[in-house]
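Convert to structure. Protein one:
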Amino acid sequence: MELMRHGTRQSTMMSPRHVRGTVLAVLLCSALAGCGSVAASAPAGAGASSSAPATSSAQAASSAPASPASASSGAASSGAAAGAAASGCASVNQATSVTVHRVMHLVEPTRAGALSKTQHNATLVRALFSELCAAVSHPSAKKGIIRCPADFGISYLGTFYDGSRTLAKFIYGASGCQTVSLTADGKTRSTFMLGGTSTAAPKLRTDMAAVLGVPTLAIAQPVAGSGGTGANK
């Protein structure tokens, strides 16, 4: 009976061949499982590695200095903005010519003839423009009735140009109580040439005479020989 019991126990034990087969199967499954995990994680790793260069490239591109083309484009834009055409009193230094017409409102005949002139001397043009701007920028605070002796009704109408572009128009009442009216950008500013206004533009009459090519005395009153027409070339 004892021998039978030992035999039965031996029949339930695995043979060496079965053991080796089992071990090989376990090792093979482990190897396959390991390969599978690597293969499955490989795309994630590849995605991470591929996104990293993209991020680095984007950061490098954003931090890289501007190319010569973009830099020159920015400079051109800045130059265009800086060279934008001004108007009104801001364009004094752009004025290249002025056309002036003398107008007389006297009823009785005078000896002064018609006077119309276009001045192309930029220095003279800008000096007159600057004086007119100084006058309207310091308007007189005088109020009430103002008596104006020796008012011969002489005034000058003019237009300042930058080439063919109109910069401003003015009316200068030269006799009696002098007045100045300057129109630019659709706005008109006017003032009497009294007090601080006269002090701000002391050379207005002189500069007007220089532009017209006549004696200063002829600006405010009719003087024989002060008439004439033409253009300064």
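Protein two, convert as well:
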Amino acid sequence: MRYLLFFVMAFCASVTFGEEVTTVTNDDTIRTESITDSNVNTTSTTTTTLKSPPASAITPTINTSNSDLCTFGVAGAIQTQILGISTGTQVTDENCERLKLSKTLYDMGMKVAAVSTMCQDKRVFDAMMMAGTPCPYDGLIGDQAKAAWVTNEELQPGVKEKEGMKDGTKTLLGGAGVAGLLLLLLI
């Protein structure tokens, strides 16, 4: 009996080892099942570069497109990597205003008043005196006006400077302010 048991076990063992795990399908593909265990290690270095547009200071627009205005706009801006400043203002042209006022007075029939308005400019005043037709003085015209202007020279245009800062001083202070601001921005 021992031999029989040994014989059956040997027969079963040969049958077990004789089976194939291979499968054949209709398209003649041979498939084999297998299990694989693998490990993958990856090391990488990443660099990010941020590119941004430069900062910008934009000057304000001052619209003076109407030709009837006696003003014009002045604007400017300065920009550094850290700080930007922009500013603008409008400047009144006094000679333009004088011309418009004089023309309006003349159109209304007030010729002496129109000439008086123009005579507020030293250049016009001097030209009128040189031409022998002095500017009106307190309602006086002609030789009477000339005598009054000679008597009261301190009232002639351009003789008495306006009180306050002169234009040269304003320009110098403005330039110094801008230079100081530029130095501050560079620090």
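The chain has six helices and four strands. The helical segments are 2-17, 94-107, 111-118, 122-130, 143-151, 167-186.
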